[in-house]
Design brief:
Blueprint: H1 3-14, H2 20-27, H3 34-45, E1 68-78, E2 81-94, E3 98-102, E4 109-110, E5 119-126, E6 129-136, E7 143-150, E8 156-166, E9 169-179, H4 193-201, H5 212-215
Antiparallel strand pairs: 1-2, 1-9, 2-3, 2-4, 3-5, 5-6, 6-7, 7-8, 8-9
Helix pairs in contact: 1-2
Length: 219
Amino acid sequence: MSHAGYAEYLTGLLGWRVTPEAVENWEAGSTPPGDAVEACLAVSSGTPRPGLLLEAVPGSFPASALAGPWVTAYQFSHAGMAHFHADIAHVTAEGDRAVRAVNHPPEPRTQGRSSPFRNEIEGRLFGRHLVGTWRNTSDTRYYGALQLAVLPGETVMDGHYTGVASDIEVSAHRWRWVRLEAGDAATVALREPVRIYGLIMDRTQDDPPLTAAEIREDS
């Protein structure tokens, strides 16, 4: 494999960005990180490793097709009651199959919380499914997994997330993403999360991307 090809392959296995320059330096004698060594040994020995099991499932389209801003919303439980969260996730592609996303700016909105959930997400395409993990960086107790089906047209993603309900419980709820029209999404003050949740749950793959006017607080 070329340096670029091997770097992309390792990026998918490790969940962090490996550059072609790093691969070249490792081949020249510099010491790679331990998890990179472990990944290479696992591949050469045939030992299963997270990410390898699904490698035989090709992506149906390049990850770059998902790049850009998305309006996302989900429900979560708090004190036994249903609450809602909404944000704008900014997706970037890392190679043909891997993506990363952060949900700010603008500031997300989380019902019932003085500090909204700020999430970082990493995922990988398998067929038309984006499978990955998420972590709340504003309250590091919360993290979990997600699986989203990418509807034809690549303007709607729909699926579920799982997360930490407690040390011995797992929560699971629907998570829906709708593409946002390109523009200055960072300056949008979002509407109440329950309103955005209702708005994007009604969108279909045949609808155009959302506009900033539709999700702005003064709509």
